[in-house]
């Protein structure tokens, strides 16, 4: 078993990136029965907060920044349930760049630290998901260098589309400059409101830009229940919960299809 590592990103904030990171990890672990590690690379720690709240975890003693400082991420893994583990983040992680510059001399050493520390863990998982801040930064650089695929989140608005375009351009830069071995898994639309004209137009433009095969046919629709989970944690009690879960299960199923196609193409090369 060697984990497929997927970074979830867009260079615009507030597009639903963290929710997608958490929920795809959750559904893979709890419904598909896969071994999953969610890595929170965002100092705001929103993914860590939502997972902890959902699992009834009240105390987080060690975070990803502790792991970087110790040179070992295994000691900061938080077990959430049988199939899901979390490497949590906290506000202290804002000092990541200063830590890198003080301890590593070259650009390549600085941007490959996460890859170096994640590689020994990959044999224990089927999937590793990485949630990153919406910035061109040491966080996103490390995540890109450590990942096999990127899932680009596209909220149905112009600035998000521009953020997705910038993300693809930056991936190309990382490939050219540092030989990053990462592929675009796809572009996942997150709708502001179902049936909205702007939403539909943005998805159509994304399809023209990235190609029909690269834009997910399943979308994350605007669901009030997803907002409620920020307060209550992830639930599966009533039909509103089940509807929200099904939205992400459909996305996970399409991800599986795309990953299978990538593997088939690679085996034919």
TrEMBL record:
Cell inner membrane listed as a keyword: no
Residues in AAA domain copies: 4-183
Keywords: Plasmid
Gene3D superfamilies: P-loop containing nucleotide triphosphate hydrolases
Entry superkingdom: Bacteria
Pfam families per the UniProt record, alphabetical: AAA_31 (PF13614)
CDD domains recorded: ParAB_family
Name recorded for this polypeptide: ParA family protein
């Amino acid at each position: 078993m060697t984990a497929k590592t997927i970074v979830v990103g867009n260079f615009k904030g507030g597009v639903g990136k963290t929710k997608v990171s958490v929920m795809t990890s959750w559904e893979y672990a709890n419904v598909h029965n896969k071994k999953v590690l969610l890595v929170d690379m965002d100092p705001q720690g929103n993914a860590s907060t939502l997972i902890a709240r959902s699992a009834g975890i009240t105390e987080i003693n060690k975070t990803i920044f502790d792991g970087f400082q110790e040179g070992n991420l295994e000691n900061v893994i938080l077990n959430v349930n049988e199939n899901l583990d979390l490497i949590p983040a906290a506000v202290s992680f804002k000092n990541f760049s200063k830590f890198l510059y003080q301890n590593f001399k070259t650009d390549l050493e600085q941007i490959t630290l996460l890859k170096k520390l994640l590689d020994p863990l990959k044999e224990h998982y089927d999937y590793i998901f990485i949630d990153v801040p919406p910035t061109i930064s040491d966080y996103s650089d490390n995540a890109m260098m450590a990942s096999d695929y990127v899932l680009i989140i596209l909220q149905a608005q112009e600035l998000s589309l521009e953020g997705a375009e910038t993300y693809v351009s930056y991936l190309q830069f990382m490939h050219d400059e540092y030989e990053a071995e990462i592929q675009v898994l796809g572009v996942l639309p997150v709708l502001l409101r179902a049936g909205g004209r702007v939403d539909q137009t943005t998805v159509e433009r994304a399809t023209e830009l990235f190609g029909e095969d690269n834009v997910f046919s399943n979308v994350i629709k605007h669901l009030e229940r997803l907002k409620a989970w920020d307060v209550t944690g992830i639930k599966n009690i009533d039909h509103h919960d089940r509807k929200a879960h099904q939205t992400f299960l459909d996305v996970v199923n399409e991800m599986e299809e795309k990953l299978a196609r990538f593997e088939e193409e690679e085996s034919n090369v």
